[in-house]
Amino acid sequence: MSRRLRLWVLALGGLGVAALLAAAYLRLPDFGGAVHPYGDRAVEASLARRTSNTIASVNFDQRAFDTLGEETILFASVLGTVVLLRQTRDERQVRPAPEKVAAPVRRYALALLPIALLTGLYVIAHGQLSPGGGFQGGVVVATALHLLYIGADYRALERIRPVGIYEVGDAAGEATYLILGVAGLVGGSAFLANTLLPYGTFNTLASGGTVPLLNAAVGMEVGCAVVVLLARFLDQAVEIEQSTTAGGKDRDA
Fold it and tell me: Which residue numbers in the chain have pLDDT < 70?
C-alpha cells in the first residue's frame, strides 16, 4: 500500500469518526442541565444490583463487555512486550551489581512497601463498595512490589518477583473474566450478565453479584501485567547486554 493510499484511508476514517462525533454532539443535553438520563439510569441499576460504587457497576455489570476490551488491550500489550523484549542470541544476561542506597531512602521504601501492598489489595477487594477497583488496585499492588527495587536492589526484587508466576497470573485473570462471561451464557442469560449469583445485602463485601468476582479478576490481571511489563523493561536496562567478541566488537559488526 502506497503512502498516498494510506493517507486517503486515514482521511476517510477520520471523516467518518468526525461525522459520528458531530451527530452525537448535536443530540447531547444542554451543559449544566437538570436532565441526566444515562447517569440516572446507571445509578438506578447500580442500586438495584446492590452495588454501592456506581462506577464499578458500570464497569463490571452494565458495560462489562467494554471492560473486557480494555483488559484485553493490556493483556495484548504484555504479550507483545514479552515477545519483543525476549533475550536474543546476540545478547547475554549479567548479574547486576549491588546498589548503594541511602539509609533514609531504604528505610522509607521498606516501611512503605507493606502499607502500599495492603492498600492496593484493599482497593481491589472493596472496589464494588468504594472508589477504586481492580484497575487502580492492581497498579498500586504492582508499584508496591517495586519499592523493594528502590529500598534494596534489583536482586532483592527478583527474589519476590518470579516473572513466570506473574505471567500465569496475568493469563489467569484474563481467562477468569472470560469464564465468568461464558457462565452467563451457560446459565441461560447473556454474556457477562450479572445473573449468576445473588446480589446480597447492600454495602457488604459480598454484595453486587458477579461484580466483585469480575473486579478481582481485573485486579489480578492488571497487577500481574504491570509487574511483567516492568520486569521486561528493567531486565533490558539492568541485566541484558549485547554480546561481544574477544576483540570487543559486536558479533554482528
Answer: 243-253
